[in-house]
Amino acid sequence: MIDIRRPDNMVRIETEAQAKAYIDEQITLLRQQIGDKKVLLALSGGVDSSVVAALLIKAVGDQLVSVHVNHGLLRKGEPEQVIEVFRNQMHANLIYVDATDRFLNKLAGVTDPETKRMIIGGEFIEVFAEEARKLDGIEFLAQGTIWPDILESEAGIKAHHNAGGLPEDLSFELVEPVRILFKDEVRVVGKALGLPDNMVYRQPFPGPGLGVRCPGAITRDRLEAVRESDAILREEFAKNGLEGKVWQYFTVVPDFKSTGITDGKRTFQWPCIIRAINTTDVVEVTVEHLDPAFIDHLVQRITTEVPGINRVLFDYTPKPPATVEYE
Ligand code: XMP
């Protein structure tokens, strides 16, 4: 693997014209590197892997095999959108694996946050490797590595997260077409490639997905309450012009119940916690103070529309002392 580095004098990609020039250059380089061979990509639906997929579809078309693993911890509508955009609109060679049962069965009863993360990460590699072994003639593995990943791994801040964990029998040459780009540049390139705005300007979403927003042992009903409340929150943020303005916002449904009342009858259900934060570097995070009338509206919708929720709480804690995610 050639250690391609961002040139010191590289101009930041901000305009569509700059993005198109980058895309043309990458298409040439990708065709040179890949020739008539096949490339494999784990397509999560996040901005980096989506841009890599769109670039490779333009450069080598059907020679790209994308695998979308649904671990059952994705947000509402995400797997459907990956299928719609890549299979139906871009005609990608897409393998969709619904591994929900497999992940949730492995996670059943597991309460420790780090163990949960390890199970999700390990199982992901396992499922992806199984799909890779079914395919013939793959020589390359595409990854959505971006320039900050390289800088952070060099500085010893975090290990290079990408599919480095694949078993030894699966050793592919890497293809990393957004490796020298910063996140904002990846978004400009994604937009120029015609990807939908809600994919390009998507807020950060952790690899273990809703699993870390369903603290403690994950159950299907509580996970559904996280997914439904998150969908309402995202819909309301979009409707009220907050999408793209607030850095990250989501819901958490903790594993305890409290007493409530609905239609004159006692209920005993979970609370739903709303988290809305801003940051530039994710090292320090401040809380977005939402309009009280907007919070009232969210409380009303979430308590009436999400089964199992009878109370809504707002998390006013910055980072530090709290982290963004709950696990
Ligand atoms: P924390 O909870 O560490 O989160 O304050 C900081 C930012 O990182 C995101 N996050 C993750 N992103 N894989 C990811 O790709 C992960 O395992 C992960 N855990 C946290 C989190 O959503 C926040 O934006």
Topology diagram in text:
Elements: H1 16-34, E1 38-42, H2 47-60, E2 64-70, H3 78-89, E3 93-98, H4 100-107, H5 113-134, E4 138-142, H6 147-154, E5 173-175, H7 183-192, H8 197-200, H9 220-239, E6 248-252, E7 258-262, E8 265-279, E9 285-287, H10 292-305, E10 309-314
Parallel strand pairs: 1-2, 1-4, 2-3, 4-5, 8-10
Antiparallel strand pairs: 6-8, 7-8, 8-9
Helix pairs in contact: 1-2, 1-7, 2-7, 4-5, 9-10
Bound molecules: xanthosine-5'-monophosphate.
Question: Would you write up a description of this structure?
Answer:
Helix content is 40%, strand content 18%. By secondary structure, it is α/β, with parallel strands linked by helices. It has two domains: 16-200, 3-Layer(aba) Sandwich (Rossmann fold); 209-314, GMP Synthetase, Chain A, domain 3, CATH 3.30.300.10. A five-stranded parallel β-sheet has the order 3-2-1-4-5, with helices on both faces. Strands 6, 7, 8, 9 and 10 form a five-stranded mixed β-sheet that branches. A hairpin with a 5-residue loop joins β8 (265-279) and β9 (285-287). α1 crosses α7 (183-192), α2 packs across α7 and α9 packs antiparallel against α10 (292-305). The protein is globular. The site of xanthosine-5'-monophosphate (XMP) has 10 residues, from loops. The site of xanthosine-5'-monophosphate has 10 residues, from loops.
